[in-house]
Amino acid sequence: MALDPKFRGYSVTFGSRIGVIILTAAAGILSARLLGPSDKGAYTVATLLPSLLSTIAMLAGPQLVLTDVSKTGQVGSRLDKLLRWSLAIAFSSAAICLIFQVSSQPPPLSGALVLSSAVAVVAPALITPEYFASTLQARNKFGALAVLRLCQIAVPGTLMIFGVLLGQLIGAMTGFIAGSLIVGVTCLILWRKVHRFQDAGIGGERIPWKYVFLTNLTLIVLFLSYRIDVLILNAASSAHEVGVYSAGVAVAELVLVVAMSAAVVRAPFYARHPMRPLRRDAWLVLGLSAFTAFSIAAICPLLVTTLFGPEYQGAIPTIWILLPGISILAVYRFVSNAELVRGHKLGILYSCLISIACDVTLVIILSPNWGALGAAAAGSISYAAGLGYLLLHRSLRGAPRFKPGVHYASRSEARLPREVKA
Predict the structure, then answer these.
(1) What mean pLDDT do residues 237-251 have?
(2) Which of 200, 323, 327, 388 has the fewest CB atoms nearer than 10 Å to its CB?
(3) Cβ(201)–Cβ(72) under 8 Å?
């Protein structure tokens, strides 16, 4: 008997997420063992820069691709124009960062310093896979999407490990740069070869810049709400604490596999049916994430000692403190992903700003004395604050707005937008 396409999509996506987690964990464990906490912390901070630059330069392209292709099945010419804008901004930003970082350091320049600055050039290569992945997701080609996601981790991760063996920190960054460029260029070739760019019937060829800028701002703030704790911890504490914290995060974020699998599969559905409730899905994500968190909490002492080594013992209490927050983050990421594809950005933007404010304040207060433990506590509290506001914002936005003298058949009718009532 043939498997239902919906459940086949779940199973393939969930399997690929497990594969991505395993590959990421393997690369993280090997690099942590081979580099040690201090170099691991330096590598983590260096590779955050291209991720941040690509997020800024992405221009909400993957979200627009997902929306357009989910509704029309076509990749419009405006999407290709938006990709060219994204790549141009990424190249410019990377060049500015490289020049600034190198010129601001007194000679003689070390190889590690030059390469940590050169990592910025990876930013454009991180953009094209996301555009191409969104077309696969919108067309429910979850098998091809799974292969792409695995390659995004496997190729840079494998070359990074070979680089560590050959040249420690310098080799690790060289391998990461080479692997990311291979994946990025391949996806750009596929994007040009597979798609026929034409008017998709949604706004013609005009790029909706208002949507792009507001959504992109939301995504930048969303990225910072997940990763700013590493940057603040690096400034307020030490590279060793960053290395311990990154090991703890790598284990705790196993909880997110359920939420992100569900978000990938359900996003095209929510794009096509923006009025459908998501409460049932959110509760399911919370239950499965909590169960995963309890399981990880029970085995993490053995897991950390066996996989990372005794020098990472400090990651064990860090994981315990992070797990409640990561369970909350799982629900937050699922709900925020659904809200983005529906075009509801302001609630996510405000909730991220609240989360960042809590995180930065608490990391600055706690990390000088508590290091990775302080950053973990700050992260858990900030995730809870962000989800709390987002749910409050959604409830207020969906509350009935009765008008005097108007008859409503039900309370739900009063909540419908004007265009839906018409």
Answers:
(1) 77
(2) 388
(3) yes
Nearest to 160 by CA among 173, 148, 150: 173
Q: Distance (Å, rounded) from C-alpha 255 to C-alpha 288?
A: 9
Q: Degrees (nearest 5) of the Cα angle 26, 32, 37?
A: 160
Burial 65-90 (b: 16+ CB within 10 A, else e): bbbbbbeeebbbbbbbebbebbbebb
Residue 409's pLDDT is 46
Q: Quick one: pLDDT at residue 410?
A: 45
Backbone angles phi, psi at 215, to 5 degrees: -65, -40
Tell me the helix, strand and coil percentages in the chain, rounded to 5. Answer: 85, 0, 15
Three-state SS at 349: helix
- Which two tokens mark 404? 């005097």
Question: CA–CA separation, 134 vs 145, rounded Å?
Answer: 9
Distance CA 165, CA 180 (A): 18
Closest CA to 84 of 127, 42, 126: 127
The token pair at 49 is: 């820069």
- Examine residue 108 and say whether the peptide bond preceding it is cis (omega within 30 degrees of 0): yes
Helix residue ranges per DSSP H, 58-110: 61-72, 77-103
Measured between alpha carbons, how far is 295 from 306 in angstroms, rounded to an integer? 17
